[in-house]
Write a structure and sequence with these properties.
Two copies of one chain form a homodimer.
Chain A (H helix, E strand, L loop, with lengths): L3 H8 L3 H9 L6 H14 L5 H6 L6 E6 L7 H14 L3 E6 L4 H12 L5 E4 L19 E4 L9 E4 L1 H14 L5 E4 L6 H16 L9 E2 L4 H14 L6 E4 L2 H13 L9 E3 L16 E3 L2 H18 L9 E4 L2 E3 L6
Parallel strand pairs in A: 1-2, 1-3, 3-4, 4-5, 5-11, 6-7, 6-8, 8-9
Antiparallel strand pairs in A: 10-12
Helix pairs in contact in A: 1-2, 1-3, 5-11, 7-8, 9-10
Chain A binds a DNA duplex (30 and 30 nucleotides) through helix 2 and helix 4.
Chain lengths: ~325, ~325
DNA sequence: ATTATTTCTGCAAACGATTGCAGAAACGAT
DNA sequence: ATCGTTTCTGCAATCGTTTGCAGAAATAAT
């Protein structure tokens, strides 16, 4: 790799002048400037990012910390982040933590010593409060998808409204008894979805159905098992709101296994609108999260924090994006 | 962040001694060593990776270049790479190229100036031959999933055998006429799958069915359209081998739309065994690629290249992993 | 006790960039 | 022609490490 001295030699100037031309902060005469640029072009010089970072500049790298890339909610968001980062000359480092706080802390230390410019975390949850300290230490941080407190800039879905819309929609289609198969209430997003569900029921004057609200289910397998269990115990709702698309897929499978039809006998809704959710049978009616857009916004916000900082005595910005109903064929 | 001088001061030694203790290359007396280690511990010192990189050391970072993270073949492989990298103290930078060679070249330049230690590419294909030059410039490179030539270390599936096994399995189940819905033949992996299909037919004394071998299809939509087209023109095979799971999903949908059953009227097989392929209806019989394992191997190989180099006059190592049949319910 | 080894430690020079400072060159004003 | 500005450029220090070299201290040999 060619360095700044070689460029300087080729242009017949000193290294400082080359640096000044490239950074543009300090004026250089037009004639030397063009000579330098020609040399840069000719040698295909690219400044060494480590040296720049060491000197106190930014390294233009951000750390993206997620639980597990195999969870399908993340790829689209990552794409939004990566595209936005690239557009601004930033590079993205990926870390999977499996929800493990120790692993996460190791990653954070490891990246900080690489002089990373900032972090996007999708791993915020109770037990990870140490994340809240980073901004105080001068590390720019944005939370994405999952929120923790109100002191860190965050990009999330309006989860309460998403579940509200879904429930209301099923009620409007004449579904009377709606079971809720939800994730763990320790994550605010599932708490919010539960609340949205309750609000829609209440507004419609419908009581919360007994034994038909299940929390703590996760993934396709749980959706299947929970629904199977429900049906075996004689609890047959005529609608199910699952708070993720894989859970909804498991639910549908359990319903089919019991010899019932979707949506003929039981309507089913999911949540997230993952890429494969239109390919299922029946195509899944669900609540869309604009993952790509959320990634874009989180990344924009982070780059803003890195480059402009956050003015003192300013509140954290909590960016709540609207949920959108995607109507397909799994509700009658 | 605390630096080596502060540690040196705390331990009452010079910075060089601290460095020597930590790298361990040069002997230091036990007594000073313990003093230094205590200071390191107390101040929670972590060497600045940029400074180390600048000095000529490795930065312990690898670049992972893929077409698009939303393509579901990648997340599992990425996970394998990331886990392996982490285990060896390496960090992974993610780049999506959308198959765009210019974008890819920009990424490569950008990462090289960050002193990245090596690359894993899943983007190799005709038109990207410039990738073959990198090893000659001293940049460690491994190809994953997609192969290009034989001069670069590569980790791929035994694609020919995968398609051979799939075809043979359908024949063994009494399927007579097997359509092939394949990707573009410019990628060797699709060429290989085609050859495996042909070999199985030939071995069984079955002729290649006319108008039922389609190349260049990609994704769910193409699978759907191609199958629909086939059925509308009166070409009704009693089996379909789709060379990706999403294509197979589209095929199944088209079959259902035509009022036919899977596998009752037509058997369908996919390829890849993506995470969602067990959740489909019917559950998809397919050929599994061990993506996670492939990621692990690619990463191990790359780290080996980085740390030990490749002995001169050595051939590239092409690591071909076995394909495995996953039998579910979409073949009669 | 003196010298010859061995073992350890500190100094200073790199790595490649940026930037304050001061000197050189160019210009205009008298 | 002299002086004062302005504009540009180079020197050298700096960021945080690592490492060759040489000197200091400790040990062994005479």
């Amino acid at each position: 790799m060619v360095n700044i001295k070689e460029v300087a030699a080729a242009a017949g100037v000193s290294a400082s002048t080359v640096s000044r031309v490239l950074t543009g902060n300090i004026p250089v005469s037009d004639i030397t400037k063009s000579r330098v640029l020609a040399a840069v072009e000719k040698l295909n010089y690219q400044p060494n990012a480590c040296a720049q970072g060491l000197k106190g500049g930014r390294l233009h790298t951000i750390g993206l910390v997620i639980p597990n890339i195999r969870n399908l909610v993340f790829p689209a968001a990552i794409r939004g982040i990566e595209d936005t980062a690239g557009k601004h000359g930033y590079t993205v480092v990926l870390c999977n933590t499996d929800e493990d706080a120790d692993k996460e802390r190791l990653y954070i230390d490891n990246l900080r010593r690489r002089l990373i410019d900032g972090f996007i975390f999708s791993t915020a949850r109770p037990g990870h409060e140490y994340l809240l300290d980073l901004p105080g230490e001068g590390v720019p941080v944005v939370f994405l998808i999952r929120q923790l407190g109100k002191t860190v800039d965050t990009v999330v879905l309006h989860n309460e409204d998403g579940a509200y819309q879904a429930t209301r929609y099923m009620l409007s289609r004449g579904v009377k008894t709606i079971a809720l198969i939800n994730g763990g209430l320790d994550l605010p997003l599932y708490k919010d979805r539960y609340n949205g569900y309750l609000r829609a029921l209440k507004e419609a004057g419908v009581a919360e159905p007994e034994r038909m609200v299940i929390h703590g289910a996760s993934g396709w397998e749980d959706g299947y098992l929970v629904m199977k269990d429900l049906l075996q115990h004689g609890c047959q709702p005529d609608g199910v709101l699952a708070t993720s698309d894989p859970k909804a897929m498991g639910v549908i499978r359990a319903i089919h296994d019991a010899g019932l039809q979707v949506p003929g006998d039981i309507s089913v809704m999911g949540f997230d609108n993952l890429d494969f959710s239109s390919m299922t049978d029946p195509p899944l009616t669900t609540v869309a999260q604009p993952f790509y857009e959320m990634g874009v916004r989180a990344c924009q916000r982070l780059i803003h924090l890195i480059e402009k900082g956050r003015p003192a005595n300013t509140r954290a910005k909590i960016d709540v994006l609207p949920a959108e109903l995607v109507i397909r064929k799994s509700v009658r």
